[in-house]
Amino acid sequence: MTINDKLIGLIRTGVPALIGSAIAWLIAQIPAVNDIIVSIDAVLAGADFGVTVLGLLQVLSVALVIAGYYWLARTLGARFPWLEKWLLGRSVIPTYVTSTNSGVHFNNGASVKDAIARLEGAE
C-alpha cells in the first residue's frame, strides 16, 4: 500500500465515521428515541457490566448508524459513482495487496508477475 492508498483509506473511513456519528447524535436528540434508550437502560440496569448500560447502548447505536451509512454510501456509489465521492470523501478505492501461497496479488486479481509483465510490455 502506498502512502496515497493509506490516505484514501483514512478519508474513506473517517468521513463515514464523522457523518454517521453526527447522524446518530441527531437521532438521539429526538425525544422519543431518547425515551426508548432510557427505558432499555432501566430494564437492563440490574446487570453489572462495569459501565452504564446507557453508555453501551449509545456506543452500539452509533456503530450501527455508521455501518448503515457506509453500506448505503457504497450501495449508492455502485449505482451512481459520482455520488460516492460526496458520501465517502473520495470515489477512488485504495489498492490492497494480499499475499497467498501462490504469491502476492492485487485486489483486482492480478499478480505481481502480471503487473511487471504489463509494464515491460508497455516499453
Describe this structure in words.
- The chain is mainly alpha-helical and 123 residues long.
- The protein has two domains: 3-92, no CATH class; 96-123, no CATH class.
- The chain has five helices and two strands.
- It has helices at 3-28, 31-44, 53-79, 81-88, 112-122, and strands at residues 97-100, 103-106.
- It has a two-stranded antiparallel sheet with strand order 1-2.
- The two termini are 24 Å apart.
- The mean pLDDT is 77.
Q: Key terms for this structure?
A:
7% strand; mainly alpha; 123 residues; single chain; 2 domains; two-stranded antiparallel ribbon; 5 helices
Shape: elongated
Strand content: 5-15%
Number of helices: 5
Mean pLDDT over all positions: 77
Number of strands: 2
Unreliably modeled segments: none
| Global Rg | 21 Å
- Share in helix: 55-70%
Query: How many discrete structural domains?
Result: 2
SS-derived structural category: mainly alpha
Spatial gap, N to C terminus? 24 Å
The biggest beta sheet reads: 2 strands, antiparallel
The ordered string of helix (H) and strand (E) elements is: HHHHEEH
Largest beta sheet: what is the strand line-up? 1-2
